[in-house]
Design a protein that fits this description.
Two copies of one chain form a homodimer.
Chain A lengths: L9 H11 L6 E5 L12 E2 L9 E2 L3 E4 L13 E8 L14 E5 L11 E4 L3 E5 L2 E4 L9 E2 L10 E3 L7 H9 L4 E5 L3 E7 L3 E2 L10 E2 L2 H11 L3 E8 L3 H13 L3 E5 L4 H14 L2 E6 L3 E2 L5 E5 L2 E6 L3 H19 L10 E6 L3 E2 L5 E11 L2 E6 L7 H5 L3 E5 L5 E2 L4 E6 L1
Parallel strand pairs in A: 5-6, 13-16, 13-17, 14-15, 17-21, 19-24, 22-25
Antiparallel strand pairs in A: 1-12, 2-11, 3-10, 4-6, 4-7, 5-9, 8-9, 18-20, 20-21, 22-28, 23-27, 24-25, 24-26, 26-28
């Protein structure tokens, strides 16, 4: 049982994997309404200005600003009211000297007028006349044409993830259909003679499948479609057949490999038989997660995760999630869900590998503390009991108690 | 056009609203596989231990630890190999004194054995005999029964949001079905004579609906089901009929109100007619977002959002999202997506209200800076161009350039 990995640092391993996986060609056109959190596949510019007409931001009177110049409470300016601007329509008249039109927030500025005076700065004299008690500048209390977006302005780069306000921004311009990256289909296969489906009752020596479900959750959160493909025993022919079938209907394949050296070798052999170039990386300098396999088979990325649930989740976060972003052509650096907290314990490490430690967040004396949740990497509940993870960098001897650490939340 | 709000601080307004909205009674039973990001409606304890048998964490030999005591490279201990532990099954024999069984990672510890020695610490003598070059302690290289979860142990409190690893943890124990809070149905109505559907071409004075879509996105992200109910003109009867119909098929109602005082009054009147107790809060001390209406009609929460898209989004984040969490019985304080950054500008404010400012994150000299995106609250693209928001607290005069601020990411 020889262990002969060429162990790569995570960043280097990811680069090798990325270099061999082509950008994802599949895009689809969907209703903007359905595009929340999808990745835009086109660069969008504004075909028209927003707004297309000057709008009032106040309830008040539209008028010519110059007619109000010099107006004060003691020396008001007089205006005759020539009508009311209807909401959603243009005002049929032109506002002339010393004339005003009633206007509401969002109303369209009438021709002739160039400002709005707030109702609170006016005094009604009679049904047709008002006093204006303060001067307004041209453009005051208005949104002008193109103030939100100018015609031809860049709206979104390709690769943007569409957030709630982005949907609103698209709709404001009448862009009701968008081209987005198709959600990558990720086939997931669990392997191991000892692994059974969660609905079954285990005999002595058997355990229920965990990794299919943690990985499916991560895939869904990263914008992919998880396609669970069942559990395959430790048999080369069976695994080769199952992975070949799974990869045919998917854009990417995840094999939750057995943890023993022999089953890891099985996964590697199957990857090499599945398609060119096969295995690219066998082993990464990360704890937990060293026995990771990264490959590409006929243009489709394949990853062999370690069987231990904690290792599988760390490795999926480090490699599977970035690959899913790449497959969706999403180049924007991820603003990950992070918090800064202080470490409750010393955490020694060994230079030459990245260590990932699960932590619980606790608030004490108004401060946020990160408390390590120690546990072997085959215990799924160390993850369940944790709020996030911290990373001890590649060339560090460890972290000190009290040190500020970045916690990546689950 | 009188403005007669009794303006409440946001926290106080939320409390009033919460006090009148009953906890949500609807739960549903779904497959654990489908339960990602859902809120658990039951408290779950372990009906069995995990694992149910002691498992090896290494490839090596299972043996009685005491037989290895004192073994060194120069003075090894001798063992006869009596067989190999099959994966997923128990070993049919008992390991006796000076006996060992081949075992792989994840294999079930045979009867008689109490430790595993790593294969790297052994030397093969012949087909049936090995030397052990280092002593092992009882329990070494093992996961013992219940080490992950003990029988009867608390797994999840009701109200937990199920993350990827939580699904795995449930599956590990055979919990393939869970009771979760039903996703609240949130009806959304946009109002305004000037508002048209995004697919239509606006005439002068008309604008496309934005808020239905930003709100729908926020609702979906907070676990609700958005039910867009169209656009209603500024007409009391029409709005009353539409809101009544919408609320019948929903758990909550959002009215994106017009921004002028008269249409705000319309929304309040409709709320009071819809059901008891009607309007609870009319105006909150927040900028933008002051003309917010919070109400409860026959047990169902109703919110009147300001019409300006930026105000609507700020207010939806402050009130709608927490209410959606409450309706799902999710008491766990939200670990919001936050980053700390340094402010690029002075930001004056007025004590007595909370100010929300959109910011863009920029990295300069290795530091993260929050750069305010100034723009009127009726410009949707100030939100599109922003990465997040910062809050100037209720009783602050503002924030200083260079100050560290919490940025809540969109």
């Amino acid at each position: 049982m020889p262990e002969m990995f060429k162990v790569l640092p995570p960043a280097e391993a990811l680069k090798v994997w990325f270099d061999h996986a082509s950008p994802f060609p599949r895009v689809e056109s969907i209703a903007t309404e359905e595009a929340l959190d999808r990745v835009l596949a086109e660069r969008l510019t504004a075909r028209s200005a927003l707004p297309t007409f000057a709008r009032s931001t106040m309830d008040g009177y539209a008028l010519r600003a110059e007619d109000s110049f010099g107006a004060t409470e003691s020396l008001p300016a007089y205006f005759s009211v020539i009508g009311e601007v209807p909401m959603g329509r243009s005002f049929p008249q032109t506002v002339g000297p010393a004339q005003a039109a009633v206007i509401y927030t969002g109303g369209m500025l009438p021709a002739g007028a160039d400002a709005v005076v707030m109702v609170e700065r006016t005094q009604k004299l009679d049904a047709a006349n008002i006093e204006v008690l303060r001067s307004v500048a041209p453009g005051e209390n208005l949104v002008y044409v193109g103030e939100d977006v100018k015609e031809g302005e860049l709206l979104f780069e390709a690769g943007s993830i569409l957030r709630p306000q982005d949907l609103g921004g698209l709709m404001a311009l009448g862009i009701t259909q968008v081209s987005v990256a198709a959600r990558p289909r990720v086939a997931i296969i669990s392997t191991g003679d000892e692994v059974i489906a969660p609905g079954q009752t285990p005999n002595p020596g058997q355990i229920r499948d965990v990794n299919t479900y943690t990985v499916a959750g991560l895939v869904a959160r990263a914008g992919g479609i998880a396609v669970p493909c069942g559990i395959i025993g430790d048999n080369y022919q069976a695994l080769l057949l199952a992975t070949r079938a799974a990869l045919e209907n998917a854009d990417m394949l995840v094999i939750s490999a057995g943890s023993s050296v022999s089953t890891r070798d099985l996964t590697a052999d199957v990857l090499n038989a599945l398609g060119e170039p096969g295995v690219l990386v066998h082993g990464v300098a990360v704890k937990p997660g060293k026995p990771t396999i990264l490959g590409v088979c006929n243009g489709k990325p394949v990853i062999g995760l370690p069987g231990n649930p904690v290792s599988a989740m760390v490795v999926a976060g480090l490699f599977l999630v970035p690959m899913l972003r790449r497959l969706q052509n999403n180049p924007r650096p991820l603003l990950r869900q992070r918090l800064t907290a202080q470490l409750t314990h010393n955490l020694p490490s060994v230079p030459g590998r990245e260590d990932y430690i699960q932590v619980k967040l606790v608030e004490r004396e108004g401060r946020l503390w990160a408390e390590p949740v120690f546990g072997k990497s085959n215990l799924i509940y160390t993850l369940v009991k944790s709020d996030g993870m911290i990373c001890i960098p590649l060339n560090s001897n460890g972290l000190y108690q009290g040190e500020a650490v970045d916690v990546e939340l689950f």
